[in-house]
Amino acid sequence: MSERVDEWVAEELSLIRSFARPLFKSVTQFTTNWLTESRILQDMEKLFCQLGVLVKLTPEAQAALGRLFTPEAIAKHDFFVRAGDTTHSVAFVMSGIFRCFATSPDGVEYNKTFFIENDLMGIYYALLLNRPSPLSVQALTPCSVLIADFRQIEALYDEHPTLERLARKQAEHLFLIKEQREIDLVMLDAKARYEKFQRNFPAIEQAVPQYHIASHLGITPTQLSRIRADR
């Protein structure tokens, strides 16, 4: 009698499991999808909040632009763009740190700039002229980005003039950054450039190797160590 009861219980449990597994899988998939969509919505809200600093987009322009961006994770040391490649991608950095650098014919790397959280990232020389990129963009930490095709963004300009105005404002913003950096290289000594770097990029110093910072400042790692020791 006991053996029959055990067999009946085992059969019932097996039947319950056969129904429960698909249900559990379905609930798990639903929860995963919901969390993913919720995260994407949060990321898009963050993107439009940052773009709003430059230009107030119409709801229609915002919706059209939002459809072009997709989330992507970029592992540490992987490249967003490699020098010599043709690129049509722009990205909004959700988290992480990238370096944008040039490589001399003899293999020396020079870090032109860093892209950090809330930055718009792209090699505009390559995007606007449709030429191979002269620069590389590499992740220095694990990174999360929203990526879009710049050609698709440009295709929206006629229908949504605020997007074209946004592109102009972004170009002006980048020009001012470039102009100020060139002035700093001439007018400021290495110590002053380092102090300004700390103010502009407070989160980078402890997150990336010091030689990357030295390269950006136009000094050697030894010079940077001396500057830091004197503080």
Strand order of the largest sheet: 1-8-3-6
Q: Which secondary-structure class do the elements indicate? A: alpha+beta
- Distance between the amino and carboxyl termini: 85 Å
Question: What share of residues is helical?
Answer: 40-55%
Shape call? globular
Number of strand segments: 8
Largest β sheet strand count, sense and barrel closure: 4 strands, antiparallel
Q: Report the average pLDDT across residues.
A: 85
CA gyration radius, whole angstroms:
25 Å
DSSP strand content: 15-25%
Number of helices in the DSSP assignment? 8
Order of helices and strands: HHEEEEEEHEEHHHHH
User: Runs with pLDDT <50, length 5+?
Assistant: 27-36
Explain briefly what this protein structure is.
This protein is of the alpha+beta class and 231 residues long. It contains eight helices and eight strands, in the order H-H-E-E-E-E-E-E-H-E-E-H-H-H-H-H. It has helices at residues 2-51, 59-66, 124-129, 150-154, 161-187, 190-200, 210-217, 221-230; strands spanning 70-74, 79-81, 89-95, 98-103, 109-115, 120-121, 136-139, 143-149.
